[in-house]
Amino acid sequence: MTATRRHGMPSPLPLSGRWLATLVIAFLLPGLIGHDPWKSEDAISFGVVYGLLDHGTWLTPSLAGEPWLRDGPLYYWMAALCAKALHMLVPVHDGARVASLVSIAAALYFTRMCGRELYGKRAGDLACLTLLGCGGLVLQSRACAPETLALAAVAAFCHGVAIAWKKPVKGGIVLGIGLAVAFLASGVHAVLPPLIALLALLPFARLRRSQAFLRAACTGLGIALVLSLPWLVALALVAPDYLHDWVQAQSAVATAMPQASPTLDHLRTIAWATWPAWPLALWVTWNNRRQLNDIGGMVPLAIALVSIVLLVLNPAPRPIDLLTLLAPLSIPAGLAALQLRRGAANALAWFSAMTFSLLIGLLWVVWIATSTGVPADLASAATRLEPGYAHAVSPMAALLALVATGIWIGLLRRTRQTPLREIPLWTGAVTITAAVVLLLGVGWIDYGKSYRLVAESLRDHLPAQTRCIDALGLGEVQRAMFHYHGGFVTRARSAQALATETAEADDMTCNALLIQRYADDPEIELAPSWRITWEASRPRDRERFRLYSR
Fold first, then answer.
1. What would you report as the CA-atom Rg of the chain, rounded to the nearest whole angstrom?
2. Which residues are bridge partners to 492 per DSSP?
3. Residue 260 clears pLDDT 60, i.e. is over it
4. Are 36 and 450 in contact (CB under 8 A)?
5. Could you report the per-residue pLDDT of 307-340, keeping only the tens digit for each?
6. Hey, which residues does 544 pair with through a beta bridge?
7. pTM of the model
8. pLDDT digits over 93-133, tens only?
9. Distance between CA atoms of 466 and 504, rounded to whole angstroms?
10. Residue 546, H or E segment
11. Are the C-beta atoms of residues 119 and 3 closer than 8 Å to each other?
């Protein structure tokens, strides 16, 4: 597949150079710092990072004292190092998120370079912009999460494949590092799509006698193996039980059977999280179906196809798992933006300009009303949605939001006369809208997504001589945040064990019990020795926490 200029004329890209850099900064920085870990992935991953910092178990990551087996350790190492390096400037949870900033920046860079290598300079820039504008990246990129590093690894792998034809050694090194980083960051589910795509295309490369690609592939596989083995070997020598459990958990992910209901839900999630990359990638693949003979261009599509199949088959889907799908879809989408017909391009540009301009204006109206109290009905909306929230005006945040709004107005003027405006307008609209929301509303969002108040209140009501805390129904998010904000860890118990327990507390048992339940859950029968001492919940949340002591 090759890039063609729309309408047969040179089409200048309205967002390149300084404008592109400005948009990337506006995407990456707002919402990165200045708030507590948010439910859910941000809180869980930071809980693992905090375990490294608190207990020093760098070889065997843990969450609130229990082994963490979902991912590899690499991202958590990065986040912990960032937190330690920046602890004099920002809180540790803000410092840890810098690892996500570095990861997303790397993903954007490699996506852009891969698109440029395969389809040309403009297509590379449009691929980068398409990735920036994907709904899943906008919502998940500011979380402390290993999937952000896995996204960068997959983008690097695609770039390595793209340059393998001209520079097989360099291409092999880059794709091998990409495979290793994907494995060490997020485990089997992140490395399987690029690995399967690479292996599936090797016979095709051999038939075409593409010796350069074959050498790059073999080099990359060797490098990936060499880089991945040290951690596994260290586990085998120092923590064989952890290695056994980790391998079991990763095998369960790879061999899990799909369930009908979450599969349908996940298809809907894939549709919005990968917009606008997926329709563009699908259209350009069909439009250039007779030219699908370039292995470099086939690899991103193969990765995307394998990723979608694995995501659909996942019995426990999480929206953040979609991040690794975004780069392989965005790379061919950059080519599609060059070939998109005038009617579709104008429709997307018009929708972006009108809809998001109105939305940004509405955000300012709501913020002004909340800050001034006029009109009263609109001003009370924040409190109605989050009972107990007290609005505080931040002049610096308001100034930055005003600057972001000015950038949006400048972008509208800059793209008015160019035919390649649809993707820049969409991405600019999504980026600026998200920036305004996070700058003006970060306090309100933080109030609804933080566990700090609940954790500190619970800590203050623990028995004076607490030996340990049993827990029933406590989720990963809650365990992580109670460890961080409250400074305590819990020990999981079953409802059956608690119901049959009759003995009074002794030196071998816990004298505190924490139960998490939902508003409509039935009451849990406990031994008579337990008495309730505290109960609370977060605003507008169905979760209920109850503390017992004896």
1. 25
2. 471
3. no
4. yes
5. 888 777 777 778 888 899 999 999 999 988 888 8
6. 517
7. 0.92
8. 999 999 999 999 999 999 999 999 988 888 899 999 999 99
9. 15
10. strand 543-549
11. yes
